[in-house]
Amino acid sequence: MISVGIFHGAFVGLGGAERMAALLARGLEQQGFGVKIYAISVSRYVVQELGVGHLLTKFTPFPSIKFLGIYQSLLSGYFGIRQVADKCDVVIQTGGGHQPIVETPTCRIVYWQGIWTRVNVKYQNGVWKYYYLPYKVFSSLGTANVGRRNLVLLVNSEFTRVNLARDLELDPAQMTVVYPPVELSKWAEGRKSSIREGVVNLSRFSPEKEHVAMMDCLRNIGTRFDMIGNTVNLVQEQYLAKLKRLRNVIDPTMIFGDNITQESTIARLQRAKVYFHGCEETFGLTTVEAMAAGCIPVVPNNSGHRETVPFEQLRYNTVEEARKKVVMASKGDYDYLLPEIHRHVEQFDVRLFLERMKQQIVRALSK
Predict the structure, then answer these.
(1) Within 10 A of 257 (CB to CB), how many other CB atoms are there?
(2) What CA–CA distances, in Å, run from 195 to 70, 174, 220, 269?
(3) 152 by DSSP, 3-state: which?
(4) Lowest CB count within 10 Å: 230, 283, 286, 367, which one?
(5) HSE on the CB side for 233, CA within 13 Å?
(6) What is the dihedral sign for C-alpha 46, 48, 54, 57?
(7) CB atoms within 10 A of CB 298
(8) How many contiguous H segments (helices) and E segments (strands) does the chain have?
């Protein structure tokens, strides 16, 4: 039996990276692999929701030192990957942010879902850029390992591949695009419902998700607008509280669904008419899930959205255009695209994802 260790440093949210890691772990287990998820930070609620409690091991590869900040996660990742490599035949790194490329004798698959320009936005100005500089320098050292015989580098979109190659000065040909998975059968089960109304956004409650801009764009839109997401720390809880205060000023009819179950989330999307997104995404798993559930997506005309929503009619460049397209979608003006949307999302089905990942494991072992 081939043993696979999935290293996912923070298993504390219900974001796309966590859901992808969970689907990968459960799928490989069903195919006869020996699978363990290794995480440094763990939320019992998230583990229960994703059904991976029997596969997850929490460990501390590097002592927690107060005030280390981003360097804590960097050092924990570096030592954590090396420790996981000692326990299995293949290591798969699936974190949502920067992925350290560590040299180990074990075969490694690095699944990169973020890019430098998204990781370091906070550290581009003032004294913070000097704080961040050693982090980037140290993190980039591992790129020398790319191309070695036992390393496979995967990315979640063509957008990520192009940007990562530029930022880390790598050849794009050294990376393979494997789109993240969606359990289509689960999301699509009730999408034929004839009763559909309202607009939904599904994003964690964090400033980079542009909730305020979305609220301002859809103020007094004349239909229900739900913002569904989770909070995993005090900063996100404070941000959500701020959004709820702003709601009273912008539009009191807007609805927040915070930390609701995945079952409830799916049920709401299967009754919604429109899915609205307000920020860049390297892929955008929630958009694909919403399309699978039968929603018409309205998303920015940038980043990974051009791959997940290859319909120009459903992408916007300005706030005014976004509002106009949401109104049109709510009225059914884009319903003619639904059959094509449903065909498009088939390529993201979890069964195809698992086949591709199994091929990458064989590739890593044979290099």
Answers:
(1) 17
(2) 46, 47, 22, 12
(3) strand
(4) 367
(5) 8
(6) positive
(7) 28
(8) 15, 15
**Planar angle of CA 271, 273, 279, nearest 5 degrees:** 110
Write out pLDDT tens, residues 286-314.
999 999 999 999 999 999 999 999 999 99
* Joined tokens for residue 366: 């044979």
**How far is it, in rounded angstroms, from Cα 50 to Cα 39?**
14
pLDDT along the chain (367 residues), means of 10: 93 88 96 95 89 94 86 86 92 77 80 69 71 74 64 92 85 93 89 84 94 97 96 92 97 94 92 96 95 97 97 98 98 96 96 96 85
**Distance of alpha carbon 72 from alpha carbon 110, whole angstroms:** 20
What six digits make up the tokens of 14? Answer: 């219900």
What CA–CA distance (Å, rounded) separates 92 from 81?
9
Cβ-contact 152, 176 below 8 angstroms: yes
H/E stretch holding 92 reads strand 90-93
- The amino acid at residue 222 is G
* b/e map 151-183, b = 16+ CB within 10 Å: bbbbbbbbbbbebbbebbebeeebbbbbbbbbb
Taking alpha carbons only, the member of 353, 340, 331 closest to residue 285 is 353
Residue 130: HSE in the Cβ half-sphere, 13 Å Cα cutoff: 2
Q: Which two tokens stand for residue 86?
A: 């000692």
Going by C-alpha positions, the residue among 250, 249, 285, 240 that lies closest to residue 24 is 285
CA distance 295 to 208: 23
Closest CA to 40 of 27, 56, 55: 56
Residues 6+ apart with CB under 8 A from 155: 111, 112, 113, 161, 164, 175, 176, 177, 178
Tell me how far apart the 2 most distant CA atoms of the chain are, in Å: 60
Which helix (H) or strand (E) segment holds residue 352: the answer is: helix 350-366
Closest CA to 90 of 165, 34, 42: 34
Whole-number Å distance between alpha carbons of 94 and 285: 14
Q: Identify residue 287 by its one-letter amino acid code.
A: T
